Every structure is written in C-alpha cells, then in structure tokens.
C-alpha cells in the first residue's frame, strides 16, 4: 500500500490526461467516448465524481462514478501501468464507495470486458459479483460482464488504508 498517494476530486486541468489514459488503458480498440470535453463536464457535474490518485502531484490513477437515484455506476477506473498492483485501484474504489454511501446510495454497478481477466479478478476481490454477461456490449465481438455490489450487505472493498 502506497501511503504517499493522495486521493481526491480531479481538477478540470486533469481532464486531458485522464481522457488520454482512458483511451489507452480502458477504451483501446473502441470508439473514444471519454474525451477531454466529456471528462471536463463530468468533473463539473453534481451527479458524477471523478476521483484522482496522485503521487507528488502527478496523476497515477483515476475513477469516474455517476450517481443515479438509487444506485451508482462506476464508469471508468484505471491505474497507470507503473503503479498497478500497489493497492491504488482498491483505494480509488473504496474512496468512491464511501462517497456513494455518504450520498445514501448502497448499490454500485459496473461493467468490464469479458476478456479482461485482471479487472474481473480485481472487482471480485473487492466484493463485486458477476451478475450477467452482455454479448456485444462494447462492440460486436467485445462482450461485457456486469458486476454489482450492495454496500449495505457486502464488507468494505479491502481493509482500511
Ligand atoms: C484493474 C486495475 C484498475 C486494478 O488496479 P490496481 O491498483 O493494480 O489493483 P490493486 O493493487 O488495488 O489490487 C487489488 C486486488 O485486485 C486483484 N488484482 C489486481 N491486479 C491483479 C492482477 N494483475 N492479477 C490478478 N489479480 C489482480 C488482487 O486480488 C489484488 O490484491 P493483492 O495485490 O493483495 O493480491 C488496473 O489493473 C488497471 O488499471 N487496469 C487497466 C484498466 C482496466 O482494466 N480498468 C478496469 C476496467 S474499466
């Protein structure tokens, strides 16, 4: 666990780097949906939290969660390659889960590519359940696995930092 990593809300000037990393780490091979403009709007929006993990002021990971009426949707999550497997992803999820609970929301949903074995192992480790397969969700040959977690029932993502 990297205690020198800070997690907080992303700033508007971080939108371009988050968008570029989303394109490379998450949206590769698909249409680019999380453009700098969309990220800027998400950062400004009341119903979305864009979380940034930073080391020495530099972005090392990010997560985007949208809050709906009774549940939240984890839209994006990535940790830069040199920073993976050091607990940053789990801390980002825990931070976003805490924000959801504070907003009175207990159910989180998300999708991951069916072929993304790392993400699937990661979310299962954090207490998310694979509830459904969505054929062709991302593209004709790119299926998704849908996950959900009820924060009122499930234990926290991992032990506190
Ligand atoms: C998925 C991702 C966000 C995980 O972030 P991370 O900071 O590396 O994950 P953590 O270090 O917090 O891992 C927490 C647990 O998840 C599991 N996990 C994480 N990476 C794993 C891997 N490569 N293989 C197997 N299990 C893994 C482990 O159980 C790990 O706990 P442990 O290290 O104590 O064994 C990161 O791999 C990533 O950015 N991938 C590219 C983008 C992506 O696929 N995003 C998700 C879909 S939108």
From TrEMBL:
<keyword id="KW-0012">Acyltransferase</keyword>
<dbReference type="InterPro" id="IPR050832">
    <property type="entry name" value="Bact_Acetyltransf"/>
</dbReference>
<dbReference type="InterPro" id="IPR000182">
    <property type="entry name" value="GNAT_dom"/>
</dbReference>
<dbReference type="InterPro" id="IPR016181">
    <property type="entry name" value="Acyl_CoA_acyltransferase"/>
</dbReference>
<protein>
    <submittedName>
        <fullName>Ribosomal-protein-alanine N-acetyltransferase</fullName>
        <ecNumber>2.3.1.267</ecNumber>
    </submittedName>
</protein>
<dbReference type="Pfam" id="PF00583">
    <property type="entry name" value="Acetyltransf_1"/>
</dbReference>
<feature type="domain" description="N-acetyltransferase">
    <location>
        <begin position="5"/>
        <end position="152"/>
    </location>
</feature>
<dbReference type="GO" id="GO:0008999">
    <property type="term" value="F:protein-N-terminal-alanine acetyltransferase activity"/>
</dbReference>
<keyword id="KW-0808">Transferase</keyword>
């Amino acid at each position: 666990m990297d205690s020198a990593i800070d997690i907080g809300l992303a700033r508007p000037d971080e939108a371009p780097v988050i968008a570029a990393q989303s394109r490379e780490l998450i949206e590769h091979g698909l249409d680019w949906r999380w453009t700098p403009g969309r990220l800027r709007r998400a950062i400004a929006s009341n119903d979305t939290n864009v979380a940034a993990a930073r080391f020495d002021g530099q972005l090392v990971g990010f997560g985007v969660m949208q809050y709906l009426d009774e549940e939240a949707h984890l839209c994006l999550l990535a940790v830069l390659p040199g920073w993976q497997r050091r607990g940053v992803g789990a801390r980002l999820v825990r931070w976003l889960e805490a924000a959801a609970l504070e907003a009175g929301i207990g159910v989180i949903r998300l999708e991951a590519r069916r072929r993304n074995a790392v993400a699937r192992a990661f979310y299962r480790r954090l207490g998310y359940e694979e509830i459904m397969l969505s054929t062709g969700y991302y593209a004709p040959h790119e299926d998704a696995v849908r996950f959900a977690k009820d924060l009122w029932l499930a234990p926290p993502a991992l032990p506190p930092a």
